[in-house]
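user: At home tonight, take the chain set out below, taking as long as you need, and be ready to discuss the fold:
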Amino acid sequence: MERNWVKLRNRALLEYRQGIKDFLDFAFEHTTMGDKIYCPCKKCNNYFANTRDDVEADLLTIGILPSYTHWFRHGEERHFQTCDSLDNDDESDGDGLSEMVEDYCAAFNAASCAAGDSSGDSTPEKPNDDAANFFLKLGDNEQKLFLDCKYTKLSFIVKLLHIKCLSGWTNKSFTLLLQLLNYALSKVIVELPDSLYEAKKMIRDLGLDYVKIDACRNNCMLYWKENSNKSECQVCGLSRWKSSEERVRGKKVPHKVLCYFPITPRLKKFFLSKKTASYMT
């Protein structure tokens, strides 16, 4: 179904009104809320449920969220990105890292100049230690792979890790690929990490890693905080660990692991970019 209408600014256009009708027909065909659906207007933001007439009125007067082209809140299946879609990227890598570095440099230079000018009424606040450390590490990894290349060292490694996850590469194959790239392209490419461990460390050092928490195979509980040392589920009694035959190099292997992404460091990163900071405010 055509979705370009959601980006139209002129809501009086026939194309926009027809798009609303198509959306409402689809949404109410898949709703589980009776005579209501979540309203995707810019005000309700898919948080509040309304009747068809109310949603239609909001979409006509306020407008639909321009980024809402995948109607997962209204019954459309979630689809994960495939390897084929990796070739459809924009001209830029879209990660916003370069903008962050530029924002930081501008703020730091302004602070330095103001500090040297005693006649100024106020001195712009310098980045704290955490932010300064983040930008230092970010700057080290923002080198272009080669002249006029759209990928930096960091964005290229992130893309490779993405493909690894999508394609099910083994850790060993990923490390061998990095070693081959470093050897074959040493004359035209910046030095890349030489192992999966070093590649992940780049992400971890930027505060964008995750925490692994063992979980019950039946999803009864997490082995976390006061339960972190328990060896069996307190609900179903199932062992936390797989059988001894399934151990890796003698180490116990949990039945299931939850990957938890801490929210605090991610919120901090939103405030490091001038663009996303305005949205957060």
Q: What stands out?
A: The chain has three domains: 4-74, 100-205, 211-260.
